Fold this sequence. Notes:
mainly alpha; de novo design (two linked rop proteins); rod-shaped
Amino acid sequence: MGTGTVVLLIIIGVVxxxxxxxxxxxxxxxxxxxxVEEAFATxxxxxxxxxxxxxxxxxxxxxxxxxxxGTLEKxxxxxxxxxxxxxxxxxxxxxxxxxxALRNLFALAEAYPDLKANTNFLDLQGQLxxxxxxxxxxxxxxxxxxxxxxxxxxxxxxxxxxxxxxxVRKPLFEVSDETQxxxxxxxx
Length: 188
């Protein structure tokens, strides 16, 4: 075997290894991207369940606090904005607004003792509390997967594959308003 043949075999070996690495890195990105989408879809299911509870909650509160229409309207507007958001970024912004509006709604309910004793309100409150717990857990999962995906898009050498195939960073589901970092209080 001549020197030219050895060099050719080494070049072929390097090309094959490079091709295997590119395929593995690409498939890793596809797997993580699908996991991010699945995590967001799971969270979206819980968010939709919460959206369905909100009109019932608002209607219950309306009977006791009819003159608080501004607060109730803000809750419905925030719910509609979050429910119709198109992108992940819009969904995150809408959810942050909705969380703040719900906080105001429950603060309003504190002023109405009859409302706090209403069994329908208490049932809706319990359902919303369970939804908030599920949403919090699904946000944690989503953020964990997004973190793993984002690290891979930025770390060398996988960032080369990310750049070639246009895998871009995904947004974390973060609270932008410091006052909203606290959980929605639904205890009465």
